[in-house]
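We both want to read C-alpha cells more fluently, so let's practise on a single case. Would you supply a protein for us yourself, any chain you care to pick? Would you write everything just below, so we can both look at the same thing?
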Amino acid sequence: MFVPKNNNPKNKKTCDCVIRALTEVTDKSVEEIITELTAIYLNKGWFINDPKCYDIWLKDNGYEKQNRPKFPDGKKYTGNEFCKYLNTLGIADTILAHIGAHHITVFKRI
C-alpha cells in the first residue's frame, strides 16, 4: 500500500521537500543531493529548489517526467488522492512524484 510520508524530523512542509524526496529515493545523503543541485545552480543559474533545477537533476539521473494524473473532470489529484490511485495500479516500485507547483514527493510501497 502506498501511504504519504513526510520525513522532515518536525513533520514540516517546508522548502526542503525536493531534497528530502531525492534523498529518500536515491539513498544519497542530504549533502550529496545539495552538492549535485548546487552544481546545476552554478552551471545553469537555477536555484536548487527551482523546478527547472531539479528537472535537470531528474533528467540527468534517468528519471522520465510524466504528466500529473487528473480526474476525468480535469481536477488534479492531491497527494492523498494520488496514493489511492497508485494503490489501484498494483505498482510495486518507489514513485518519485511532482505534487503541486514546487513540491516533489516520494511514494514507496510498504
Remarks:
- The longest strand covers residues 95-98.
- The two ends are 6 Å apart (CA to CA).
